[in-house]
Design goal:
mainly alpha
Length: 277
């Protein structure tokens, strides 16, 4: 696909010019700004993680103006990493720039979509996912699960592990089977750590059983099209809103949480629910 800049639609020209503006600013900052000059790939890592979570928050709130802003911050980081890598003077084989990054992802997308750019047939989402995992193994991945980042939060990691296993054909057929597994894990947890007894709980064993229960619930969530990370975060946010209402409303009534009973707190909590907080 060979095109000159002038052959492109006006909208694409404007997009490319905006990207060129960012690259130019990055060049200038790297050369002239003391803070930007000092940064390394390692020093930017924690900032990139923070920006990613800020984007996640904006998406959860469906705040499109904020999403636009956070996407800009992440794009800056991508350009920043590529700029630093282009300055590598120690090993030419490790040097790359933003052009290499962009061409790399383009080639990857083309090779991973042979049903679009080749003669492979994959007319369902599930077929596309399975073909994607087969291609990754052909590219040298030793395991279907090797593409799951080790540092992912545990809940997200559980979801990704299960999705990749499904792509390899290792999965339940029906959601009823998965729900039976959830009930089985819950029964095991209850049987071994019954709260009605005073026996000392083996903390390590309890942790393992609880992990199995959570893993089975994440598994079931896939079969009912629920993203467990999103579901839990929405519940987190709901709890925060209601607890803050409890704090503010009780304070307005001249009460302190430390002096209140749980029953008294529940009245404010239920009021928050009635108000749709």
């Amino acid at each position: 696909m060979e095109k000159t800049f002038n052959d492109l639609p006006q909208s694409r020209q404007e997009q490319l010019m905006a990207f060129d503006r960012l690259l130019t600013i990055m060049d200038e900052l790297r050369e002239q700004c003391p803070w930007d000059r000092k940064q390394t790939i390692e020093s930017l890592r924690h900032l990139t993680i923070e920006e990613t979570y800020e984007l996640s928050d904006a998406i959860m709130e469906n705040d499109l103006p904020e999403i636009k802003k956070e996407l800009g911050d992440i794009l800056l980081h991508i350009v920043f990493y590529a700029k630093i890598a282009s300055e590598n003077r120690e090993d030419d084989s490790l040097r790359f720039d933003i052009k290499d990054v962009l061409n790399g992802i383009c080639e990857k997308l083309i090779s991973r979509h042979p049903h679009i750019y080749g003669d492979v047939v994959a007319d369902t989402e599930e077929a596309v996912k399975q073909n994607w995992e087969r291609l990754k193994l052909k590219e040298g991945n030793r395991s279907v699960l090797s593409g799951v980042p080790a540092s992912l939060p545990a809940l997200v990691k559980a979801m990704r592990i299960q999705e990749k296993a499904r792509g390899a054909g290792f999965d339940w057929d029906e959601k009823e089977q998965v729900w039976e597994k959830v009930q089985e894990e819950l029964a095991e947890f209850k049987a071994n750590f019954n709260i009605e007894t005073e026996q000392v709980i083996d903390q390590k064993e309890a942790e393992g059983e609880f992990g199995d229960l959570l893993f089975s619930l994440v598994n079931y969530s896939r079969f009912v099209d629920i993203n467990p990370e999103t579901a839990l975060e929405r519940t987190n946010k709901k709890f925060i809103r209601r607890f803050q209402y409890l704090e503010e409303a009780s304070k307005a009534d001249g009460k302190m949480l430390s002096d209140m009973t749980l029953s008294e707190m529940d009245k404010y909590w239920n009021k928050a629910k009635e108000l749709g907080v």
